Amino acid sequence: MSEVEIRKPQSSLQEQLAQIHDLLQRRRQAEELLHRHASGGRQQRVESLLQRQVNNELQKRLDGLHPADIAHVLEALPPEDRLVVWQLVKADRDGDILLEVSDAVRESLIADMDEGEILAAVEPLEADELADLVEDLPPEVLPALMGSLDPQQREQVQSALSYGEDQVGALMDFEMVTIREDVTLETVLRYLRRFDELPEQTDKLFVVNQDSILTGVLPLKWLVVNAPDKTVGEVMARDVDTFLPTDDADDAAQAFERYDLISAPVVDTQGRLIGRLTIDVMVDRIREESESEALGRAGLRQEEDIFASVLDSLRNRWAWLAINLVTAFLASRVIEVFQGSIEKLVALASLMPIVASIGGSSGNQTIIKIVRAIAMEQVGLHAIWRLWRKELGVAFFNGLIWGGVMGIVVAVLYDNPALGAVMTTAMILEQMLAAFMGVGIPMMMLRLGRDPAMGSNIFLVFMTDSGGFFIFLGLASFFLMH
Questions:
Q1: Is 10-163 CATH 1.10.4100.10?
Q2: Exposure string (b/e) for 277-312, b if CB count within 10 Å is 16 or more?
Q3: In this structure, which of 124, 266, 292, 304 has its CB flanked by the most CB atoms within 10 Å?
């Protein structure tokens, strides 16, 4: 009996990536030697043989990797090495890998393929998978691709494409097992044995009537533990979590998380079964939304290939930096107003960044909690006053505690109790400003129909910086300069 190899997938993948890097380096060295000794007969044959050996070893390593792991490798390689690896991947795996890579990398891979290669890669895919790729394919390929599908597949692809990317219909698949409720469990078992394999993520069978109306589900575990002479109708579950194809995909993902679903039926408005959602798709959706939110907070409009060209990266980043520059300039104008006070009391210059910084940190804590609560649909515009009261209360006591500590330090350090009192007051007011904006900004974005995660941070930083400078320098000018 062979022993099972136990390994950590992620660490193993990193080792594979390091070995692929080494092989690519050896391949480059072999190419350089070939170019250097292009006229040397025997030596050139030896170097050509060395290059083929490296290619064979590379291909062998790639053959042992899962498509998702190959996608990870491709994303981690610069463009020239990426295309070398892509050309060594077996053609029958191209479609699965294209599904796994990021949008930016997929674009570069498809650009390296001719029309025949693209068709050969995508034709074996399921209808829902094809729908995921269609928008990234060259327009001239689409007529041939749609013509190669049978009528049912073509209808399924068109159905998936008819829904927005944020709707359940764009994420559902069409591979599922349906049964009738008047047959016995023994009949169902015989029926299942006719399959070479069940669709992935099959934890339940969908029970439909002759009009394809969903009447219930039969979990596989119930099928196994019940007597084979019982009918499906006797043991099936009639209370079923279902989705409409027009439902919001994020709501569906939250339902999968809340109810620990593995699969769920998608029905039309008449209750007819038209597809299903599966946990793997929902996990991908949650991950993509999390990444999109993180990119949005950093001002990136889209996922960027880590090895993208300077021009492409510039296009993706310039707008956010321009907004930051404008807000930073406006904040600096606040300091300019109090230049005379700073010249009279130099300590203000070293202390004012502390006030702005603590306000920004506190505001970030608030805004992250509010944005998350909005995303989870735990709060809405109706809760804004209650949230303001709570966050302002937290901010006041935080400001009182840490402002008091900082005020004592400043009073002792500069031998100026009045400056310490100003520091304490400024930190309390700055904390409260940060709390007010931390709740108000995402709620305002929600009210305007915008994603609260997009752009909230930059407006918060502007308000806490300019507000912190104004509060601290204004108090200092009023109380210390007269």
A1: no
A2: bbbebbeebbebbeebbebbbebbeeebbebbeeee
A3: 266
- What are the φ/ψ torsions at residue 236 (nearest 5 degrees)? -70, 160
Residue 278 forms beta bridges with which residues?
Answer: 263
Contact 266, 242 (CB under 8 A): yes
What pLDDT shows up at residue 209?
95
pLDDT-wise least confident of 36-45, 206-215, 241-250: 36-45
Phi-psi region of 377 (alpha: psi -120 to 50; beta: other; left: phi over 0): left
Tell me the mean pLDDT in the region 228-256: 94
For strand 273-278 and strand 214-219, is the pairing parallel, antiparallel, or unpaired? unpaired
Residues linked to residue 293 through DSSP beta bridges, in sequence order: none
Query: Beta-strand (E) ranges in 304-449?
Result: none
Q: Name the pairing type of β-strands 273-278 and 263-267.
A: antiparallel
Q: What is the pLDDT of residue 202?
A: 95
DSSP 69-137: HHHHHHHTS-HHHHHHHHHHS-GGGHHHHHHHS-HHHHHHHHHTS-HHHHHHHHTTS-HHHHHHHHTTS
Identify whether the C-beta of residue 27 lies closer than 8 Å to the C-beta of residue 84.
yes
123 burial class (0-12, 13-18, 19+ CB within 10 angstroms)? middle
Backbone angles phi, psi at 175, to 5 degrees: -90, 105
Q: Is beta strand 263-267 parallel, antiparallel or unpaired with respect to 214-219? A: unpaired
Domain positions in the chain are: 10-163, 178-297, 310-480
Specify the pTM: 0.72
The Cα 397–Cα 452 span in angstroms is: 27
Single-letter residue type at 422: V
Angle at CA of residue 197, ends 287 and 167, nearest 5°: 35
Residue 444's φ and ψ, nearest 5 degrees, are: -65, -40
CATH number of 178-297: 3.10.580.10
* DSSP codes, 370-393: HHHHHHTTS--GGGHHHHHHHHHH
What residues pair up with 272 in beta bridges, in sequence order?
213
The fold for domain 310-480 equals Tetracycline Repressor; domain 2 (1.10.357)
Side-by-side strand order, sheet with 214-219:
178-179, 204-208, 214-219
Phi then psi for residue 240, to 5 deg, are: -120, 135
Residues 6 or more apart in contact with residue 223 via CB below 8 angstroms: 185, 188, 189, 205, 235
Question: If you write DSSP's letter for every residue of 238-261 in order, what string do you get?
Answer: -----B-TTSBHHHHHHHHHHHT-
Mean pLDDT on 305-314: 73
Q: What is the residue whose two structure tokens read 């515009």?
A: 381
Residues pairing with 206 in the sheet: 178, 217
Spatial separation of the C-alpha atoms in residues 27 and 50, rounded to whole Å = 8
